[in-house]
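Reproducibility note. Readers wishing to regenerate the assembly model reported in the main text can use the exact inputs given here. Chain order matters: entities are listed in the order in which they were concatenated for prediction.
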Amino acid sequence: MATAARTARIDRVLRPVHRWVWRDGGRRVRKLLAFAEVETDGGRDILRAAEVTPDPLLRRLYLAHAIDELHHGVLFRERGAELLRTRTEPASTLFNGNPLPGGHGLDDVSIEGEADARLLAFLHVAEKAAAGRFAVYRELVADDPRTRAIFDEILHDEVFHMNYTYTQLARISPRTYRSQVWLARASRVWHRVLRLAAALGALMGAAFLTLLYFVLLPPFAWLARRAATREPGGWAPISARAEAPPTSQY
Amino acid sequence: MNILGISAHYHDSAAALVVDGMPAAAVQQERLSRHKHDAGFPLEAIEWCLDHAGLSPADLDAVVFYERSMLKLERILMCSLRAFPRSWRSFPHAIRNSLGEKVWVRGIIASYLGVPRRKILFTGHHASHAAAAFFTAPTCRAAILTADGVGEWATLTVGRGERGTGGASLSLTREIRFPHSLGMLYSTFTAYLGFPVNDGEYKVMGLAAYGRPTLCDAVRKVIRRTADGGFALVPEYFEYQTSASRSFSPAFVDLFGPPRHPYDPIDLETDDGRRYADCAASVQRVLEDTLLDITRELRRETGLPDLCFGGGVALNGVANARLLAESGFERVFVPPAPGDAGCAVGAALYADRIYFKNPDREVPDHPFMGPGVDADELARVARDDGQRVEALDEPALLDRVADDLASGRIVGWMDGATEFGPRALGHRSILAAPHTVDIRDRLNRDIKSREAFRPFAPVVRAEDAERYFELPPGGLRLARFMSGVFPVRAEWRSKLAAVTHVDGTARVQALDRDMAPRLYALLGVYGRRSGIPVLLNTSFNVAGEPIVNRAIEGYSTYRRCGIDTLVAGPTLVTKPVVPQPRSMKEAYA
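Running the prediction on these inputs yields the following structure tokens for the assembly.
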């Protein structure tokens, strides 16, 4: 069983980036508020797991876990809001810190219909990764004892989360629990690749549509604006179009 | 004839099944998926409706989608074009959003359900709102008003409906078109005041009671009245037609001051806090005045005594009460789900009565059309977890719950089929004694985790309502689904402190015995205990979550917040007096 958070290699490599993010007050606030959302969403997903599992012990453990996550969300939200109120420097809009991974929202796994073994393996891997990252963050906010205290509390909870997920995984899947953990790790990597691909796709799509917008739309825009000037505000009679055939989407 | 109605892809997806002209089942997708305001295709809701009625998709005669999606795409494209080149940022987002799923709705329905495409029909968005309001109301002839953010192009429509042995007719005669929208005006202020749009409008209404309408002139600068009795929003103050991320413009900020950050608390002792409250009060007043002018004109035009009011704006109980009192209409009917979710019912009823010209039928006058609650499931999981579980007969259970409420305990109450619509009307409710502010503060702090300025609602037996609340003629009807805000009688305000808002009003639910007999009986027992047969009734959920549906969801909510007693059917669960000796966390640390 895990007893303390160990920092992953990727987070050690990214340490200068993490330091840059946490050094700025505005980015720090946004990061904390983003964590609040992620922890709360994760808490709700784990709560759902508690509601759908047929295993009474797992239900109790998931429930305790969900309560922790929801509490972490509150801690992050309150601290973020507090820093927001006391912040004196203007907000930096260059980069809000969110694209950096953090927390452990469960967007990689669907709860309904998911086998407990797969969910436990996923949670174990996600909690372990998050604990390692939070350990880095904890060091980077040494100048801010109250934020550091939040990471301390969360890291303490993460030990429980890592340990129970692993122990219960071994209980319900005694033969395959190690392979389940590896599968969960591979799944996380694969989902990151998919997310990156989707983000790149979205970026390319947006670039293409923006190009279309400026190349193709100007004449239509001129016509549309002309039409708009003929439409006064106020009441309009309901046109015959509203009486379109029931099968029409127009 | 079996007709499935679907609303989806904007917010609050839902499905509803109409069998032989009667709504047989209806549920919002969020209640099943457990994602608040779930906008996805409501497959689980559809499956539940069909299972509940013992039907398969092959048994459906029609599937009706609640709006014409290509017409909506036309509006989105047209707005982008008109705002060229300012719309360059929002254009890719809007197109991806529309082309991703929304315009392919016929194919999506056909592929998910395996029904022939010819069976897939469409209604207008506001026709669905109108049908949901008119065909569910106990009236044969009525004027109709619908108002929301936007449907396809319309944002507000008026018309009339008639029904009887000869069939039914529903005609919408004129409309206000996007971007001019009362719903968008209110939502813009919702965003400006730092609340989430399509969720925080209630908060603006609650906050309005703390303010004075001193900024009405400024609000009237952003919404001007037109000579024909309509209105138009002044575009320079709004950006929702050109931006995906911001609804108000710098000119709006110049007019009303800096917007509130969503994470800033509202402190009514500060200048900013008072300004926010005054903004809320002012937009509320202007909204009411505008609606009032429109409904007075509609009353004159139709000469009808009844008004059916649908669309998201009809959730504004303060405005509804003013319409009832001042518009000239004798009765105002607001359905329990006037928003987009209710369009699933409306679309199905519209197809049944108008497209297929089936004979009109009286529909059930209650909102309980969703999944039921399994008391055995609750007993089993609560026993597993070492909770105190009792199975009581009805009188003993009511006595026990009334005792608990009278002693200041908070009760999670689940009974029968879940409500369709955003309000808990007695089947998935958190109940408490309504007498002190302490209980209100405890609910806000330990259970609902919400802003202190938001009021809680009372529930009272219909025959007792006028003793405690100043209901105008027709008020009982509006209070049936908690759709109106009315004054608490001055002599009872101190004894109903937990449900009396700062302005002395309450969004009261007047309960008939037929609608929720168990809660009705509980009110009687509680009244005999406390002398006041009124209870605080708030939705059974915590912040950010949908109202509970199954017993297990009520149970998990009860376990993690300050609810003391949980009831489902004959099962009553309370927390153990002696805490567990060793926590699970310690065991795994």
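We highlight two features of this model. The first strand of chain A starts at residue 235 and ends at 237. Residues 177-216 of chain A form the longest helix (40 residues).
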